[in-house]
Amino acid sequence: MGSGWDTEEIAGNRAKGYFFPLSLAMYSISITISLSAFVYGATLAYLQPRIWQDYILRMMIVAQFFNCLFFAFRLVLVDAELETEAACRVAFFMSDSFSLLPVNICVHCVVYLQLVVVHNVSPGLRWPRVVTLVIALAITFLPVSFILFIAPRRFGRRSICDLNWVPNDKEYSYYMTVLASWAYLSGAIGFVSVLTIAIYLVRTRRATLRALQLSAEYYGPSLAVERVGHSEILYKALLTIIWVPITPIISLWFNTVLVTVSHYKHRIYNSLEIINLVLLCLQAVFLGLPLLVNPRMRAALAAQLRGHQSPVPIDTTCPPMLLPPPAAQRGNGSLAPCSAVPLRSTRRTL
After folding, report:
1. 219, CA 20 to 30 Å: which among 22, 35, 201, 324?
2. Distances (CA, A) of 220 to 110, 205, 212, 216, 322
3. Phi, psi of 343 (to 5 degrees)
4. pLDDT tens for residues 172-194?
5. What is the pTM of this model?
């Protein structure tokens, strides 16, 4: 009977041969989806320059590019033979950091949107963008950077290049404290931000609806009351950002379950590996959906198909379902401080 090390190595080699065709197919599909989303966004931004002036949409397009690089890198690693210690360290660093980078960029966009919409931060200020982006990049790269210089004996391994299909106690502790915790943090921050924005939109919509109904009692029925009261408008606004916290929750959190089960059961579960691979590849779908369902992107696409430039840009600091509240009701703290009115040419959008 071989040693425990040899048994684990044999199990890892079997798993690698079993999942190679599936990994190759899933990563190829994910690359196609991410590349298509990036080309779609970049093409619209080139044809409609106002799209690129929108900071959030610009960062969403950049996230598609890094997501495509992540899956391309994973595709290369499927059958790569890394023999040197330095190559393995760089490969693990890029694989772990690139898996979080597009997700954290999108979470950064949601947090910045919360600052603008809920906390009335001016979209003309640069420091909120810089600070939130630096924090997102720090959360992405700093924890993973330990793999570049940490000694293999810290993991109970002879080399970093050893495939850890069944993690030992030291590897499991490193994974949970250095890697998994930050993936959970990204999902938690995104979920709180989306929930905060959703609550704010619901309350603002109700306050605006009451103000318009009160105005209708004096000036007669108005189509604006029906438009603000339509639930589909609010649904479309939330549909644009709800995918951001779903991405790390669905695509990254299940990996923690897989590692935990493999660690405590001391074996590889093929069914869990398949589920983990499919959920990871769904990251391409979840990050591409905000671009596809975004009302501004769809309006730009429709305008381009009609053969003319998109209309005057709408202030994206305020959700498009909100109509401008009556002047008498502004400033009392019950209604949104912004309104969906055309911007002046000298003011930039998000």
Report:
1. 201
2. 39, 20, 10, 5, 20
3. -85, 155
4. 888 888 778 777 888 888 889 88
5. 0.75
Cβ–Cβ < 8 Å for 338, 324: no
Residue in 69, 71, 193 with CA at minimum distance from that of residue 135:
193
For 334, other C-beta atoms within 10 Å of its C-beta total 15
pLDDT, tens digit, 9 for 90 and up, residues 42-73: 999 998 888 888 888 899 999 999 999 999 98
Structure tokens at 126: 């640069």
Sign of the torsion formed by the C-alpha atoms of 292, 296, 299 and 300: negative
- Taking alpha carbons only, the member of 210, 224, 193, 238 closest to residue 336 is 210
End-to-end CA distance of the chain: 64
Comparing C-alpha atoms, which of 17, 182, 213 is closest to residue 99?
182
- Whether the CB-CB separation of 44 and 51 falls below 8 Å is answered with yes
4-312 carries CATH number 1.20.1070.10: yes
Q: Within 13 Å, how many C-alpha atoms sit on residue 152's CB side?
A: 12
Ramachandran angles phi, psi of 314, nearest 5°: -95, 145
Q: State pLDDT tens for residues 158-171.
A: 777 776 677 888 88
State the residue for tokens 């000298």. Answer: 346
Are residues 191 and 246 in contact, defined by beta-carbon separation less than 8 angstroms? no
Round to whole Å and give the CA distance between 214 and 17: 69
Evaluate if residue 335 carries a pLDDT over 80.
no
Q: How many CA atoms lie within 13 A of 40 on its CB side?
A: 21
Tokens 């080399």 -> residue: 159
Helix (H, G, I), strand (E, B) or coil at 342: strand
> Which residues have CB under 8 Å from 244's CB, separation 6+?
103, 106, 107, 109, 110, 190, 194, 290
For 245-278, the pLDDT digits (tens) are 777 777 777 888 888 888 888 888 888 888 888 8
